[in-house]
Write a structure and sequence with these properties.
The chain has 304 residues and is of the alpha+beta class. It has eight helices and 17 strands.
Length: 304
């Protein structure tokens, strides 16, 4: 990964190389942290962070879900994120806030541990590759099931939960695919290892509901608004593995992955085996929204 110069840590700008934690930090041992992934885009009027307030609000909710006391307000965190982008002179960036337990407790109860908050930002290109954005990616259904509502809080972005995503992602890559699609404990489709999923069939767009164990993605929610404005009907409904095979189009959404078409699932071509018209429209609308070219969604942008 490409670094940058400063990371905001507990209220101060710290040089990249000095933004370290102790090896006995609670979060390192038990995954007791929550985080966010946000993107800033270059627009005609300067650098803008996409849905910054909504991301920081999700961070607050994730911390609440896991009872991690948050020292900073959503506003404070938003201001700090802007400062990190500015001080690093980034025109576009991936922004990574994290709140985690540090030193002070090594038993499972983290109450005696310190809580730390950091926000880093650096340049990061297409998560699933430029070629993937253009022509679509190849996915497989994972042998691993997505974390369930009875095990963790799947719609909170807790660091520990990502061991589950890592199992799915590494299995997919090791076996020659670009990304994994995870079923939930009941066998319904949930999402990618770090993206939400949309399916198009006979003109209807479907995406799994939060009850399916997904992370309630901000890109997903943005796309639902954007596509509905264009007259599409979007259903939040359960999707089966077979539905994936009969789909005309499939695409993934996420801050890092943006809108990535899927061209093959479990070695079966999706539709014609190339990105379809709804997928192209979704990509186009999303790019217009994040770069400030849609007047009705200007409020999604926070200028640095
Ligand atoms: N699902 C998972 C598991 C993720 O990690 C992400 C990325 N944060 C998403 C979905 C997409 O969420 P968002 O659109 O808010 O980035």
């Amino acid at each position: 990964m490409e670094g940058s110069r400063y990371i905001w840590m507990d209220g101060e700008m710290v040089p990249w190389a000095e933004a370290n934690v102790h090896v006995l930090a609670h979060a390192l041992h038990y995954g007791s942290g929550v985080f966010e992934g946000i993107r800033a885009y270059e627009t005609e009027e300067g650098t803008a962070i996409f849905r910054l307030g909504d991301h920081m609000e999700r961070l607050r909710r994730s911390a609440k879900a896991y009872s991690i006391p948050l020292e900073w307000s959503v506003d404070d965190l938003g201001k700090a994120a802007k400062e990190v982008v500015a001080i690093n002179e980034l025109e576009s960036a991936y922004i990574r806030p994290i709140v985690f337990y540090g030193l002070g407790a090594i038993g499972l109860d983290p109450a005696a541990a310190t809580v730390h908050t950091a926000i880093a930002a650096w340049r990061w290109g297409a998560y699933l590759g430029e070629e993937g954005l253009r022509n679509g990616i190849r996915v497989r259904v994972s042998s691993w099931r997505r974390i369930d509502h009875g095990m963790l809080v799947p719609d909170a972005k807790g660091t520990g939960g990502y061991l589950n995503s890592i199992l799915a992602k590494t299995e997919a890559v090791r076996t020659g695919y670009d990304e994994a699609i995870m079923l939930n404990a009941h066998g319904s489709v949930s999402e990618g290892s770090g993206e939400n999923l949309f399916l198009v069939r006979d003109g209807t767009i479907t995406t799994p509901p939060v009850a399916a164990g997904i992370l309630n993605g901000i890109t997903r929610n943005s796309l639902m608004d954007l596509l509905q404005d264009e007259g599409h009907h979007i259903r939040e409904a359960s999707i089966t593995r077979g539905d994936l095979y009969y789909a005309d189009e499939l695409f993934l959404t996420g801050t890092a992955a943006e809108v990535t078409p899927i061209r093959e699932v479990d070695d079966r071509p999706v539709g014609e085996g190339k990105p379809g018209t709804v997928t192209r429209q979704a990509q186009d609308l999303y790019q217009q929204a994040v770069t400030g070219r849609l007047d009705q969604y200007r409020h999604w942008l926070e200028f640095v």
